[in-house]
Design goal:
Helix content is 37%, strand content 23%. With 367 residues, the chain is α/β, with parallel strands linked by helices.
């Protein structure tokens, strides 16, 4: 590592203050203002490091736009409503959503677009794509204006910093990032501590020696804040991400560079870091704060319930043969259980008293 690299700076920090939690390492690697991943990269798309559902098919964002319009109608059609997206990437989802919203002019006119984005690189891309919608930007959820809210978060929670714990002989210990004798970044286990046992989800605490559990405190804090917000004013949130339900054991932290996995601790700041989302924990945090939750449901089933195939047929009717093939293959990738259809899931959070949102009717009563 070079002396001015982010890895070298992290190593100096460890020598001065001791090993880092995995969460602290992720925060530095992703958000360092000078050398962090999001400070220097536009990560999404074929030229980036990963591709998200809106980049795969326009149908994804269009269906979410119709989903939002339905919720707006169920909320009594408020004259003004904040449409917020957490981590809007290149603005593709918001652009497709707004295009679908234009089919219902009263809904489109009611929308105030607010993007929650910290990356200066991505803000510039979003400004270019969404200038006509006159978006506003904030860095944190708490900065959103009060009042009715529709919120969308697609592949946002997977990038929030996690903590990892390893089951020892008697108690759990926190996994940390330290240095080996050569000065390279390595994972190490901290001391076993009965207090750490309480941080592990109750259903996982009795796992055997060597088991790994992950929690994401920022995700729980955010969904709790969202739950409180939904009790104060009418609204709904749609969270789509890859993850598991119910809570599960196992390390899921990964790094991607140019669409290929790379070692998590290699060259921090040059690769995307993410981990699977614990949907059960998110739903529980939101419900504890007063919101109702529906799902999660597999992404494929959710999109099919919203009419994905009908939308494909409508688009294909006016497309060239090449465009029809691209439209069909893109949607298949979103729906196929072997692709994104099952690993990716959708969770809805709504204000108390609102009925089950579209795509979640078969889930029964709110949980």
């Amino acid at each position: 590592m070079t002396e001015d690299s982010l890895a070298a700076r992290i190593a100096r920090h460890i020598r001065a203050t001791g090993p880092l939690s995995v969460a602290a390492y992720m925060t530095m690697a992703l958000h360092d203002r000078e050398a962090g991943y999001y400070a220097r990269h536009s990560p999404i798309g074929a030229a980036g490091d990963f591709v998200t559902a809106p980049e795969v098919s326009q149908i994804f964002g269009e269906l979410i736009g119709l989903w939002c319009a339905d919720l707006w109608d169920r909320m009594g059609r408020p004259a003004r409503i904040t449409l917020a997206e957490l981590g809007p990437g290149r603005g593709t989802l918001a652009g497709d959503l707004l295009r679908a919203a234009a089919a219902l002019p009263p809904f489109r006119c009611a929308l105030d677009l607010v993007l929650v984005e910290a990356s200066p690189v991505l803000r510039r891309v979003q400004q270019q794509r969404l200038a006509a919608a006159r978006p506003r930007w904030v860095e944190h959820f708490e900065e959103l204006p009060p009042g009715p809210l529709l919120l969308v978060a697609n592949e946002f929670f997977d990038a929030l910093p996690i903590r990892q714990f390893v089951r020892g002989r008697a108690h759990w210990a926190e996994r940390r990032v330290g240095l080996d004798p050569a000065g390279n970044l390595v994972f190490i286990a901290g001391p076993e501590d009965p207090a750490i046992d309480l941080l592990v989800p109750a259903a996982l605490r009795t796992a055997g020696c060597g088991a790994v559990a992950e929690i994401c405190p920022p995700a729980l804090a955010l969904t709790a804040a969202l739950g409180r917000r939904l009790t104060e004013a009418p609204g709904a949130a749609l969270i789509v991400d890859y993850g598991y339900f119910p809570s599960a054991l196992g390390p899921t932290l990964r790094a991607l560079r140019q669409h290929r996995p790379v070692p998590v601790l290699a060259a921090p700041g040059t690769a995307d870091l993410s981990a699977h989302v614990d949907f059960a924990a998110l739903a529980e945090a939101a419900r504890a704060a007063g919101a109702a939750s529906f799902g999660p449901v597999p992404q494929g089933r959710f999109l099919q319930a919203l009419g994905a195939e009908l939308r494909l047929a409508a688009l294909a009717a006016g497309a060239t043969p090449t465009q029809r093939r691209d439209l069909a293959s893109g949607l298949e990738r979103l729906l196929d259980p072997r692709e994104m259809g099952t690993l990716f899931k959708a969770l809805a959070l709504v204000s108390p008293g609102l009925p089950a949102p579209p795509g979640f009717a078969e889930e029964g009563s709110p949980r």
